[in-house]
Amino acid sequence: MRTLFAKLSIALITIVVLMGTAFFVVDRVNTRVYYEELTQQLNAPIAMYVTGQRDLITAGTPDLDSLADLANHAMVINPTAEIYLLDTEGNILGHGLPPDSVVHDKVDLRPIRSLIDGSATMPIRGDDPRGSSRKVFSAFEVRTGNQLEGYLYVVLGGQKYEELANDIGSSYVGRANFYIAIVIVVLTAVVGLLVFGLLTKRLKNLSSEMQRVGASGFKSQPNLALPDSGGDEIDQLTRSFVTMSDQIQSQIEQLQENDRLRRELVSNISHDLRTPLSAVQGYLETLIIRGNTLSDEERSRYLNIARKHITRLGVLIGDLFELSKLDSASVTPNLEAFSLPELVQDVAQEFQLEAENKGITVVIDAAEDLAFTLGDIGLIQRVLENLMRNAIRFTPDGGTVTLSIRDRQQNIAVSVSDTGSGIPDKEIPRIFDRFYRAVSGEETKSDSSGLGLAIVKRILDLHDSSITVESKLEHGTRFEFELPIYEEAA
Ligand SMILES: Nc1ncnc2c1ncn2[C@@H]1O[C@H](COP(=O)(O)OP(=O)(O)OP(=O)(O)O)[C@@H](O)[C@H]1O
Ligand SMILES: [Mg+2]
User: Ligand 1 test: best mutation among 448, 451, 477, most atoms within 8 Å of CB?
Assistant: First the structure.
């Protein structure tokens, strides 16, 4: 009883049985009304005919013998007819029936008048002096000359009819209609149950397929037949399920990939933290154990190396901290208008000494009259520093690093290019990954962590901007990004 099919079936059978019963009842009522109308139409002239035969009331006195005589006559014509003679108030003056069987001595004149003046449509029912039900009748005025003396009232379908009507169950039409109703009910129920069975079978398939895919942890694809487009609600449901399970599947894969990256990150971090730490530890232990036997020169060399590692650790922790800050959802760049050429100038200044030491020339190539750009000046400075540091690191002595600023309609583009080692094509997609160091940087691996470009990418993401790389091995590399021009509010 818990399945949809069972519920639908019960609903259907209930509806069909109710409709069958309604059909049967309506049919019986209609048959009766039809019969009454027919009877009244056919027998309307009876009263007139009977009245025309004799003077039933003479000067207010009813002629009961003639009435009894006429009643017998009328009953020969129509055995269900019962004849009454009424005065002008509707009081019964006489009738041709056994005296005990008549229980009322007055009938309502209103239906009689509307039948006579034809103001109501048939069937018109009037009082039955022999009982409480209302019956169709025929009636006619009884007059002497122009004087209205009373009415002749003929109840049609009297007790005789009643007996016949109660027997209608056994009549041909009554029985036929009963069987027809039953056949219709059964046929409708059978067809309905078949249709419901087919429809719910598809739902059942869908639900068991959903369970199967769910139980497999969305690893297996749903195996469901679908029309290419359109279809009914069940098809739409199926389609939504297929789309949803695809989405869930790819989200699960994404989560697994994220998990893998996170693990890799943690192992990279631990490795990068441990290397300088154990170096520092080694030098400190040497100093403690053999401090006395070392020359001043050696001692200060060891201490300097230890300091270098500690500095590197500081930088690494600083970078990690910065990245995690930039990753947190709450960070929004503090946008303001600033002059890119000025910022580029400052950054170039910062690296001047380092570049000179390596014999590298730093060139600034800025277009004239550039508009202000919109960005977080502190973060953009960080981007330029990271790119500049890479450029200097990967460029050999005598090379050139060029910082150029160009106008690009809505934006201003900044590029940092060098004449250094270049990056192999297959490495390019990965250099923005955290902790990723390309092969070309092998020799410098010990003092770099591979976070610089990850920070650059994250900062530009926050500015809704992106960075592009062009690189040719042994020729050089060029990074470029754009920032929007600041437009003063009108
Ligand atoms: N200008 C460049 N020329 C050649 N290779 C580059 C250049 N810039 C980046 N790379 C390559 O991309 C890798 C990733 O750069 P990234 O700045 O993220 O890390 P890193 O410089 O190695 O370390 P960090 O910047 O954290 O000290 C570098 O290791 C290097 O192999
Ligand atoms: Mg770097």
Answer: 448
